[in-house]
Amino acid sequence: MAALPVSLKDLVRQSIFDELRKKAIPYATSVLLVDEAADAILLESNCSLTELMGLGIREKQLLFANRNQKDAPVVYFVSPGMDVAQKIVEDAARKLYTSAYIFVTSQASDDVFNYVSTNYHKAM
Fold first, then answer.
1. Range of the domain at 73
2. How far apart are CA 66 and CA 110, in angstroms?
3. Which of 7, 58, 63, 92 has fewest C-beta within 10 Å?
């Protein structure tokens, strides 16, 4: 039997799910935070909230929306811009979540990576 062709959309979707499964499942109540670019990727990849919940995500929120403290870990799925990095550090300073996992939609610049790695733990 010949293998069915796999679309790029399916590959992206599976990659997202595989990475989330590694980080979110041990914490069955994780919050998924996305920026507009990452949310568009989820939508284009047909990632439903029901499927995300099956991976241990209890809710999905937009990064730049007004958010309240959650007694839960957070999984960031975001684009690697400095504005996003600053918001992640701000969340740490506000102690909004118990722990954080950061996934970016593309490679982060050294400036962005260094900003988060230097300032995130200082903010905690």
1. 9-123
2. 28
3. 7
